[in-house]
UniProtKB/TrEMBL annotation:
Pfam short name (any one): Amidohydro_1
InterPro entries to which the protein is assigned, alphabetical: Amidohydro-rel, Metal-dep_hydrolase_composite, Metal_Hydrolase, Metallo-dep_Hydrolase, OTAase-like
Domain Amidohydrolase-related: 53-402
The organism's taxonomic lineage, starting at the top: Bacteria, Bacillati, Actinomycetota, Actinomycetes, Pseudonocardiales
Species whose genome carries this gene: Saccharopolyspora flava
A GO molecular-function annotation: hydrolase activity, acting on carbon-nitrogen (but not peptide) bonds
Protein's recorded name: Imidazolonepropionase
PANTHER family per the UniProt record, alphabetical: ALPHA-D-RIBOSE 1-METHYLPHOSPHONATE 5-TRIPHOSPHATE DIPHOSPHATASE
Amino acid sequence: MTTLLLRSGALLDVETGEYAEGDLLCADGRIVETGPGLKAPDDARIVDLGGATVLPGLIDAHVHVTAATADLGALTTWSPAYAAAHSARIMSGMLDRGFTTVRDASGADFGLADAQAEGLIRGPRLAFCGKALSQTGGHGDSRPRGTRVHDGHQCCAGLGRIADGVDAVRAAARDELRKGAHHIKVMAGGGVASPTDRIDSTQYSMDELHAVVQEAEAANRYVAAHAYTARSVSRSLRAGIRSIEHGNLIDESNVAEFLEHDAFLVPTLVTYWALKTEGREFGLPEDSWRKVDEVLGAGLAALETAHRGGVKIAYGTDLLGGMHRHQNEEFRIRSEVQRPLDVIRSATSTAAELLGMSGEIGTLRHGARADLVVCDGDPLADIAALAEPERIRHVVQGGELV
């Protein structure tokens, strides 16, 4: 494995928010030493950074690498091979934008994760959940009103699987865990890109939510829940769900619940901006496009409420189709209500904690995986250094310059 020495960089400690001028040495896929004037091993590849900023590889905690179209219902008709080819292209683009690890929030499976780990496809490390669990008529049920037949075979390219009742959701959770899921995803409320539910609906009974949490905890895994409203978020947190996806319509009452349950919020603000401006161009059905306004304006206020209350917030984007290219724009949007350092932590150390990989990724500590981003400019002073992918000079993954 290549030994890599990055010379003369500004190394950002995301935990303290402080810079250290110096070099960074990677060997065997790990960070082994940092400091000024490091001696390069004989076999080392040396890259002179000329003072550019070095920070941990970015982590996006809410992606859909199989969502090559915003028409999620159409995905179920695609050949799995065709969907995988699209996913390889999408993942490669994410790596180029500085994201060395992503958490897929439904759609990706062990096949894509294994292919990336083995070097068969180029892309970020992939934490997957398989198919999201949805009640009939829930956010993961892509059938229009007149369609009765549902083919939930695991090889279908859709994002969700339907399971109703405590026994059925237990079986579905166990099945995704059997296939290696890093977490379980449930649809606990209505959504934009689903045809038959209201955004303000709650989904799944408390008994069903408790059953999924029990199965995940038995496997030392956790549950993430799609939820927008204060009511659906509250139900999810009380059921023991660890990660709330979106949360655009939360209010002050939810903050104490997040803190009580040590839960995470994963806002995905960029996707609503992208869906409103480009969604129909990339396949979003007209009825879904009309729903976007219900959550678009509230997202920043919800983020500000959660941040002010001390909620742990991870970085997420949830982009679909040709809109994946806007992945870094989330940095700029969040900086309207958060300091750049807080946004950077959400995409590094906080996201690593959510994934159960603190100390492994999202840090420049010695012994951590050598996943790194080198950018031009100081992102603490100007978040555009990360929001604009063209300013990312180098990406290192597992100690390799990629």
